[in-house]
Hints:
The chain has helices spanning 2-26, 34-71, 86-92, 179-192; strands at residues 76-82, 105-111, 114-119, 127-130, 134-142, 149-156, 161-166. It has 2 domains: 2-66, no CATH class; 74-192, PH-domain like (Roll). The mean pLDDT is 80. The chain has a 7-stranded antiparallel sheet with strand order 4-3-2-1-7-6-5, sandwiched between helices. It is α+β, with helices and mostly antiparallel strands. The radius of gyration is 22 Å and the shape is elongated. Keywords: Membrane, Transmembrane, Transmembrane helix. The chain crosses the membrane at residues 37-58.
Amino acid sequence: MRARTVGLALAALGVVAVALSTWRSLARPGALGPALVGAAVVLLLLGAVLTVVLRWGLRRTRARHHALEARLADWSLHEVWADRTLRAELARGGRWVRRLRGGTRLTLGWSLQGVALWRGGDADPLVVVPWGGLGSVTAGRGAAASSPRPAVVLDTVDDARLVVVPCARVDGGLLPASEPDVAALVATIRAVRPA
């Protein structure tokens, strides 16, 4: 993993060096125009930085997911984003969580014990809802950080509604899951519930 990080950093430095070299050669009088070249260089640099940051974030999420998966062999896991209402709903159910905003990356898990949510590399889940405390698991809509997306809705017997927006990939990613994928995920979670 460290070699890949070093490789990404060197690639970013290479892009910066090429961009600066190109800018210097084109910024001479009579060339394209310093303002246009400067804007192109800035866009290129921003693109390179954004690419490095996104790749680093995705690798970090996937590494965390796989570490949690190894530790919780009897749980099935799926990466999700918190809905804007999740913090308030957790507090309503008696669980106060600091700094939990819409769009926070979480891990949804389910097993014969119930359904749970983990944040980051925390060993303890944010919440565990045993099957007896869960009224229903349905597909719905949730707003993580943008417009409403297909979501998993967990209604507890104490009237809390926990909404999470699943990623398209089980181990994370940048795209949310489609409606058919969320419906399939809901069916998979329901199938584990004891009769």
